[in-house]
Batch of 3 targets.
Target 1
Amino acid sequence: MAVPTFVPSARVPRSPDAPRASSSSGSLALVASLLGFAVITIDVTAVNIALPDIRATLHGGMAGLQWVVDAYTLMFAALMLSAGALADRAGARRAYALGVGVFTAASLACALAPGIGALIAARVAQGAGAAIVMPASLSLIRQAYDDPRRRARAIALWTVGGSVSVAVGPVLGGVLTEAAGWRSVFLLNLPVGALILVLLARVARSPRRPAAVDLGGQVTAVLALAGLAFAVIEGGHMGWTSAPVVAGFGVAVVCAVAFHRVEKRHPAPMVPLSLLRQRQVGVALAVGFAVNAGFYGVTFLLGLYYQQLRGMSGVAAGLMFVPLAAIITGTNLVSPRAAERFGRRTVIVLGQAVLALAMFALVPLDADTPLWLVLVLLVPTGLGGAFAVPALTAQLLDSVPGERAGTASGMLNSLRQTGGAMSVALFGALIAGGGDGGVGGGFSLSGMHDGLVVAGLVLCATTALAAWMLPRD
């Protein structure tokens, strides 16, 4: 499932040798950026609804479904740290075209995958393409609009487009899966990707700027996250003390230590360790991780709950997410005003507290809970995360020097995606190995309840952390 909101990269001063885009070129750049953001968002939400059909066709088991989600999310999270530098070195238009090309080709590979392993490998490539698309799309908008007001409106449209995609994705995924099977969810990306490339051909060329690429840091980050995800996902199936799981945790620890050393010695690290030592930055990253862990965990669980436990069709399950997406979109618009009136710290703490309450409120769900009550209980889920994140973003960017703003926002996005990936890994392990034997086609209701309690407790901890360590406005 897509994140409730996305943190835009910091504004970068226009290069003096950058070509001045025409009005038509700017409009085409905006349309291309909107389409790219929409397609990578819709793909995630649509795939969540298609998971039961994928399982029935490819026989991958719960662990396979977890990897279908996390292979994408982990690459997205890890490569986000250095994708901005790639966009600077290659130029926004070229980097965006590369990302769209990789994502589209990987989508075709997903649609043609003969087995669960091939699908997971293609999802890794999709995540890599999406990580390039995200920052490059914003850079493309920055290049296309010199006027700050027009640029602000363009970025607002870009953000709203992502929120709308959150609502469209589950419904579209359900319709496509019911009508033509899960492969059609990926095939839909092909014409959209081709259209984006056609539009880019008419967009003004982007300037290139020297930017260091931290290859060692990038490789160790990917390996650390992959090792951790493997250990958490497979721990619920193989046993937490099995040799492969212990080895996965070992790889994660070793690579995390290596990442720290690489970043400490690199002249231009993608994660400056000095930022992590700042109290407000550390708190913001922890909160971002927890908020996405709760949100991703709930949407992953509910997509399976609706279909495997309640027996709902893909279309019906997708429609159940529309009110949630509408609440998120509306709350995103209200949050900045609330932060101005009551202070960011208050909004950040309150948003997390509401989201924690939402986790505990969903614990009593079972196969007979009225659907209207499920929708009511989801209201605080949409309110909490969408209320906290905009204020959290502003708090983070104001706590770092201007030249570090882009790096800080990239770190926040990466940690938020990582939180989502880890929640899918843990919650999937819990619902596959719960004590009730896995009712509903392998879906453990007790495991779902355990996952929600874990998410609620994590959010309670970060709520207290934010209340204690963030400065009063």
Target 2
Amino acid sequence: MSTAFSKRYDPSGTRFGVPTFPWRFAPDGYATRRQLRDGGLRPGGQPIAAQVMRRHRGRKSGVQVAYLYRVDRARPVRPMTSRKWGALALAMLARRTCPQCQLDAGYVIPTSLGTCVSCAYPEEQRAA
């Protein structure tokens, strides 16, 4: 067994407190939040069942961790209600509305500008 594999292989959870596996070596029956979501499921309040680890040079700790949940305990995703759809539509409208000219820009206003492009650069808009 290689040292990189053995450092991250702890199926009993004695070293890290939770069963730990190397990246891509998690046993069947476990999934990340994204994998659950792709299957139409959610963790449903269950605790973290295991984790997968891999070396990562860009992180301060040098390790990247993904938490795993048990698939058999996962619950189906709650469907969106009409009120939730309406609230989401209003939030997206607020992100597209320019605070200076109060018009819908048709795109999400960049946070770097704070206003739509035509309000941020008015002299360039007049020349075109």
Target 3
Amino acid sequence: MTASRRSGSTGELGEPGRGTGQDGGTGDGRGGGPGSGEPNGPGEETGRPGSDLLAALLDGMDAALCALDAEGTVTHWNREAERILGWSAEEAVGRRGFSGWAVREADAAQVADRLLAAMDAPGRQVHEFALLTKDGGRVLVRTQSAAVRGADGSPAGVYCAFSEVHAQIDLERSLALSEALFEDASWGVVLVDADLRPAVVNTHAARAFGSGRSALLGRPLGELLAQGAEELESALTHVLAAGAPPAPAEMWLTLRTAEGERRRCWRNGFLRLSSPLAEEPVPLGVGWLFQDVTESRRTEQESARLRFRGRQLHRAALAAAECEDPGEAAVTQLDFALAGFADHALLDAAFDGEPARLVRFASAPAGGHVPGALSGQARIPVGYEEDHPALLCVQRAGSVRADAGGSGLGSGSGSGENGEAAGPVDPEAARRWAARRQWPEDAVHALCVVLRSRARTLGAVTFLRGGHRPAFTREDAQYAESVAARLAAALDLAGVGGAD
């Protein structure tokens, strides 16, 4: 409830006036202004709509508010002030100052002087006071006071808005945290609205997206991400509906930037944002925090890959050692090398000292249909064309990588065609590309490695991957060359192939 006092009346907001003594004070010792207890002036009626509106506005404020006239008498007191101090509007309005009830006697004069001084000062004045609660406790409050001017511009009083210091400090901390997150945070912070579009982006997030902060606002995530937008939008929708997940989530996303597409791994945290002003939680959007962990994840993946390949080589060596026939040992090692590395492997040997005459010796997986597969015992050459990658790798005595989307061939460990990664390939074009080279029709990426032993070329091994796998890299070529060295030793021991 809010009460007010104007022109000596406590009924400005519709409250009945209080009885006064001969000295103009109330019967309970409260001071009254000049003409206290008199009715409002002509034309001023209590309970009018404007007064009701003012009372509703004051009672609905989140901050406690009181007002004093020029003589220091309390004229307004809202519900938040009652909540903080315990004094109701009936008990507060009409009192002269705060002495003896809301402030200790020793502090009363200083508090009154500092509050009323706002009438002669420009703008707002900020102070901190220790006020008394109705039950005798003390509350440290921070006040903002400013002058109230009359119709002629002269000071008519002062209003004072106050709140508990700890609440104010909490608010300031929240604001400071928000400012720090959006300016100095070392991780990305994005506020996503209920339509799943960025509403606020901090500096770190803008750098991660390779764009300016304002350029990202309001754009659909599908315009910012080439891959991973559906997964991210699904996570944001879940947070809006069910709240924050219990742990961070890692996602691989492909960003669209001015320099091209970049694939990154982000560790993401999500928070549902709800309005503190609504009676029921109303989702305002999602707070999305992310940190780039691409390098650490790639390092972990590479370490795991190296450990797996090292174990495969070790297991292949042990299995080959138990083979009485060196040719069987070569096939065994080829099977071990295929696991987790490629979809198909072709082992071609060079017979009769002619590198251009490659004969199919083995293929993996065993029993797989390979176009043009012939028996090595018949020594009938595979019908490769002159520019076939397997023949080129034998002629160059090095590794050659080929991709269905490329236009040339690259030699050397892990080098690509024209030094560029293969782009998206039409499935029909990829099938024609594989058929022309006598490879399985699902082959999209190829790596041909020469077999060398005792300074002689014994043939070539070809590893093939389908479109669901990435193209071969330099690290893949190094592993393939380690496998080829073991295969060449086994073939040499078996007396298969041989060309200077």
